[in-house]
Specification:
Layout lengths: L12 H8 L53 E6 L6 H15 L3 E6 L8 H12 L3 E4 L3 H9 L2 E5 L7 H5 L3 H4 L3 E5 L9 H4 L7 E4 L2 H15 L6 E3 L6 H7 L2 H15 L6 E6 L8 H18 L6 E8 L6 H12 L6 E5 L5 H6 L2 E4 L10 H8 L4 E4 L4 H4 L6 E4 L4 H15 L1 H18 L2 H17 L1
Helix pairs in contact: 11-12, 11-16, 14-17
Keywords: Glycosyltransferase, Transferase
Organism: Colocasia esculenta
GO molecular function: glycosyltransferase activity
């Protein structure tokens, strides 16, 4: 089995400095429709749900930020944790967008470990360097900020646990200015203790149509509460990531560097899954499909380059039972030379530059949205994804990628899709180009900023 790798050393200074600021918000959470869109108009009604989506800036001239109206406003961002998972990274991105237009931004983290680890230290300093004030979630200053703030953003359902224990009698005063940004699709988040105040906030913002519909039905049927005004906001790629994705020199440098660190050749085919390693993200089923694809290729005597599976998102310091299961599967099936485990990273751009196909294999209800999917498409990569959740809102089956069922029944289909893209180079490249075009028309930072701006204007009017 190849050694864990990380793209870091020996890059030219210019690109090394550039890539330090590129980060992704994909993983877990992080956070959908039963069809795909083919234009920039994302408006669609979800029963009683109010949708807000704005158009793109005019190409060819520098546009004023749609968030300019937030200048000098005080915004409190409440995160349930600070980690490399999708939810916290998305909230950080919102913090930086608001700071960019002159908002006063304060960050608190409700579930902070007693000891600061390297990840928390790095992320907190990243925020401080950008002018985001970081406070303790339970200090009086945090309470005072919530009372004075023009807007309070609760990030994820779990952040609701901060309200009663900290704000206490001031909860009713703060609720009317709360925008609740929800990324979760898992059933265990539907607890009254988390979301009992949800009907009384100014609005909820959800990353996909499918998730919005799911929350509306689940809160009504299981908890007996109504959702507030709900806004669906698709995410977009950061300017920093797009700058790397669109620079052929940068991509070639990163591709060569990462492949060398993994011990694979330039001509080898790399299929990667980039998510925090957990059963819900489907790394186990991906490896089963990959192993089956190797068997199909041998059985049919197909001529393809050497194929490799890359699992980005491990934590070598804390190998869970599930991670050990993955490694056991690799050893038992004697595919160590074809499978590579890579530690989770704030910067996924090097791996997107190095691979040939992204596999988005989130299980159950799928991803709420799946930021890594649009990031991969920016790098002109085809996507093999589960036909569930946000992936169906992003990937056009047969055009920008191929979809397969969730669960064990999807293993064989994914294996066949892997073989299909391995044996049809032109189809693989065409899907990548179409995915890039789709990102440019729908999933850029300015698209996301316009959508969020429309939501914030509505919430502030209330």
């Amino acid at each position: 089995m190849a050694k864990p790798a990380a793209a870091s050393a020996s890059l030219p200074k210019r690109w090394f400095l550039l890539l330090l600021v590129v980060f992704s918000a994909s993983t877990a959470a992080v956070f959908l429709i039963r069809g795909a869109f083919d234009s920039c108009d994302l408006r669609r009604e979800v029963a009683d749900t109010q949708l807000v989506v704005s158009g793109a800036p005019v190409a060819g001239r520098r546009e004023k930020s749609p968030l300019e109206f937030m200048r000098s406003k005080l915004v409190l961002l409440v995160s349930h944790e600070l980690s490399l998972s999708g939810g916290p990274l998305l909230l950080m991105e919102l913090a930086f967008l608001l700071r960019g237009v002159g908002s006063h931004v304060v960050w608190i983290c409700n579930q902070r470990p007693s000891e600061t680890n390297d990840v928390i230290y790095s992320l907190e300093h990243k925020m401080l360097e950008r002018g985001v004030q970081v406070l303790s979630a339970k200090d009086q200053e945090a309470i005072d900020t919530a009372v004075k703030a023009d807007l309070v953003v609760l990030n994820t359902a779990v952040a609701g646990k901060w309200l009663d224990p900290v704000l206490k009698e001031q909860v009713p005063q703060v609720l009317p200015k709360i925008l609740w940004w929800i990324h979760e699709m898992r059933g265990h988040y539907f607890k009254v203790e988390f979301v009992k105040h949800l009907p009384f906030v100014a609005g909820a913002m959800i990353d996909s149509y499918t998730t919005a519909e799911y929350w509306k039905n689940r809160t009504r049927d299981r908890l007996g509460i109504r959702m507030p005004h709900t806004y669906v906001v698709h995410l977009g790629n950061s300017k920093e990531l797009m700058e790397v994705a669109e620079d052929s020199v940068a991509k070639r440098i990163l591709r060569d560097h990462v492949r060398e660190s993994l011990g694979v050749r330039r001509e080898d085919l790399l299929f990667a899954i980039i998510n925090s390693v957990s059963r819900g993200k489907g790394q186990d089923l991906f490896l089963r499909s990959f192993h089956e694809s190797l068997q199909l290729i041998r059985a049919k005597k197909l001529q393809v380059p050497s194929m490799h599976a890359v699992v980005v998102g491990s934590d070598m310091n804390v190998q869970t039972k599930f991670e050990n299961e993955l490694r056991d599967f690799v050893r038992k099936n004697e595919i160590e030379g074809h499978v590579h485990f890579v530690n989770k990273s704030l910067n996924v751009a090097p791996y997107l530059a190095a691979i040939d196909v992204l596999v988005q294999n989130s299980q159950a209800r799928g991803e709420c949205f799946g930021r890594i999917t649009i990031e991969a498409m920016a790098f002109q990569l085809p996507v093999l994804g589960t036909a569930a959740g946000g992936t169906t809102e992003i990937v056009v089956d047969g055009s920008t990628g191929l979809l397969h069922p969730v669960g064990k029944e999807g293993v064989r289909t994914l294996a066949k899709n892997i073989v299909d893209l391995a044996t049809h180079v032109e189809r693989r490249l065409t899907m990548g180009r179409k995915g890039y075009e789709r990102v440019k028309s729908m999933f850029m930072e300015h698209h996301m900023a316009s959508r969020i701006a429309a939501v914030l204007k509505e919430v502030l009017r209330q």
